[in-house]
Amino acid sequence: MADPSSYRPKPGQIPDSPGVYKFRDEHGRVIYVGKAKSLRQRLANYFQDLAGLHPRTRTMVTTAASVEWTVVSTEVEALQLEYSWIKEFDPRFNVKYRDDKSYPYLAVTLNEEFPRAQVMRGAKKKGVRYFGPYAHAWAIRETVDLMLRVFPVRTCSAGVFKRSAQIGRPCLLGYIGKCSAPCVGRISPGEHRELAEEFCDFMAGRTGAYIRRLEKQMQEAAEEMEYERAARLRDDIGALKRAMEKSAVVLADATDADLIAVAEDELEAAVQIFHVRGGRVRGQRGWVTDKVEAVTTGDLVEHALQQLYGEERGDAVPKEVLVPALPEPVEPVAQWLTQRRGSQVSLRIPQRGDKKDLMATVGRNAQQALALHKTKRASDLTTRSRALEEIAEALGLDSVPLRIECFDISHLQGDDVVASMVVFEDGLARKSEYRRFQIKGFQGQDDVRSMHEVVGRRFKRYLQEKQKSGEWTEEPDDDAPVEADGQVDPDRTAGGPVDDDGRPKRFAYPPQLVVVDGGAPQVAAARRALDELGIDDVAVCGLAKRLEEVWLPEDDDPVVLPRSSEGLYLLQRVRDEAHRFAITYQRSKRTKRLKSSPLDTVAGLGDTRRQALLKHFGSLKRLRAATIDEICEVPGVGRKTAETVAAALAGAAPPAPAVNTATGEIIEDDGVPPAALSAERGQER
């Protein structure tokens, strides 16, 4: 590990102008490339106190042995040079896209005498018309196969074309009508070029006029009793419509746009791109990247734009590029895109309408891609084994933690405080053994006390079950709640895990490792709870979300696992699952509490009559003020029920009126403001 002060340039040596800088290690290899509006200000950030740097940045500057820079004229030039150097040196601390393959395009070689439709990858060529990119080459071939019925352009290679011309016989496609056979002179070069240009126009989205023309020709053929020609035109129209159905219209006005979405966590990010041309999704692509450096969503978007358009021809850059967050600063990136295209490019975040809805779809695809990537990674037995070994080594455990339990606290501003416990065995989630807790010992928000209480309750049950003999059945207490709708949470089995014969298991075996969501205070609270119970054979650690540091009891400094560590990835996945489970329970409790009403406690009053009462009187306030005779006027409510309702509401203290903080108006008991009441109620008010 190098001392950054040993190679720090003097402030006067660094120019205060735009440029690109490179950090090199002791062997001269470039390990990081960055750009800056002011090289002096940016590089000064790397040579501050190491304690103030992000862990990944701290690792980079201590790995480096020298820094150098190149001055450029504008920020746009800096952006271009940064991309070139990243591609050239492949620095280990820059964002890297794992899926760096080239994506296939449908290309029409208009630069040839007889244009050819084919699948192409790699760098774009001058005089070739490109459509796409597509996710798979077979998708292009399916589309072209449907189109050849109407636009029988050449698709054969140069060798096949030359041989057919020499022997005077077309290939199979020429015999079955899917090629106009220019090789044997069935069509002139000019006619074939016109056919290829019509093919390109149709692929570019100008479909309506062409189909209407074919439909008109079909009707004329039918009127002239040329039924075979009419049938052929009918089949041509059907083929074109099937080709169009493969890319449904998602944006009106024949919009050309690329939509980029990012799904990320602390270690990785998934990028998804939808290519919309002529209002239709023409292609989709995506990458998964390691977050080697400390990057924001805007930084990830900038890297994606460089990856996407850095080697593309200008016509591959659309008029609009829609992103979830803008790079900072955005002007150089927008100017670079404009230069690449040769005309103005709109780089923005969609705010409303179809584009915002489509961006949400792209975002869901990114989330699914990240989840699928994590699932594949977690399902690998070798990877899981290595992760458990790394955890054991980092925490100083005698053996690998085959059973890990993680606890998390969740609340909303101190209300509805709950906790979750998730279980991982052999690196995989054991959802049947998840548990949820309500905090009983105190009121309000105190994550440390909550963690102490929950860990103590869980292991107190462990000691009780360990000492018991005979069968055990978990009592239906708050540690095994159901959802707000009364349905059992699918992530756990109420009543405890059971054997194959249906008999309940005893929850009497401990984990080798307890993980808590938090830093040193939460870890100390969990350790204290175990010590109070006399449990000294269970290891405890905490994972702090902000910097992904692992905290151990009684240690002043955290354990920093390498960013690429499979052990860190497993701990993060366990922590995130506990957080998800706690949030789900907390939201269900809050929803149930907000929907509760004094009418819920009235015996024999179901949902139908409860809704009828509220609909008749408009609010609980008016129902509380009504007489028994007035309540009896509600259809289905008898005198006995009316008396029960009146008694229940009289015993319940009326709550203080709620106030809409935005408008200042009082809200009725049923959540409806006075302005939303009926005209009759407005007059009464």
The largest sheet, given as strand count, sense and whether it forms a barrel, is:
7 strands, mixed
Extended strand count: 21
CATH-scheme architecture of the largest domain: 2-Layer Sandwich
Low-confidence stretches: 469-506, 653-685
Helix content: 40-55%
**CATH class wording of the largest domain:** Alpha Beta
Which word captures the global form?
Answer: globular
Category by helix and strand content: alpha+beta
Estimate what percentage of residues fall within beta strands. 15-25%
Number of helices: 21
CATH topology of the largest domain: Nucleotidyltransferase, domain 5
GO molecular function, one term: hydrolase activity
Pfam families: GIY-YIG, HHH_5, UVR, UvrC_RNaseH, UvrC_RNaseH_dom
Function: The UvrABC repair system catalyzes the recognition and processing of DNA lesions. UvrC both incises the 5' and 3' sides of the lesion. The N-terminal half is responsible for the 3' incision and the C-terminal half is responsible for the 5' incision.
Protein name: UvrABC system protein C
Structure description:
GO terms for molecular function: hydrolase activity. Its main location: cytoplasm. It comes from Streptomyces sirii. The UvrABC repair system catalyzes the recognition and processing of DNA lesions. UvrC both incises the 5' and 3' sides of the lesion. The N-terminal half is responsible for the 3' incision and the C-terminal half is responsible for the 5' incision. Residues 16-95 form the GIY-YIG domain. This protein has 685 residues and is an alpha+beta fold. The chain folds into 4 domains: 4-94, GIY-YIG endonuclease, CATH 3.40.1440; 257-375, Nucleotidyltransferase, domain 5 (2-Layer Sandwich), CATH 3.30.420.10; 381-592, UvrC, RNAse H endonuclease domain (Nucleotidyltransferase, domain 5), CATH 3.30.420.340; 600-684, DNA polymerase, domain 1 (Orthogonal Bundle). Helix content is 40%, strand content 16%. The strands form 5 sheets. Strands 13, 14, 15, 16, 17, 18 and 19 form a 7-stranded mixed beta sheet that branches. A 6-stranded mixed beta sheet has the order 4-10-9-8-11-12. A 3-stranded antiparallel beta sheet has the order 2-1-3. β20 (658-659) and β21 (666-667) form a beta hairpin. The model is unreliable at 469-506 and 653-685 (pLDDT under 50).
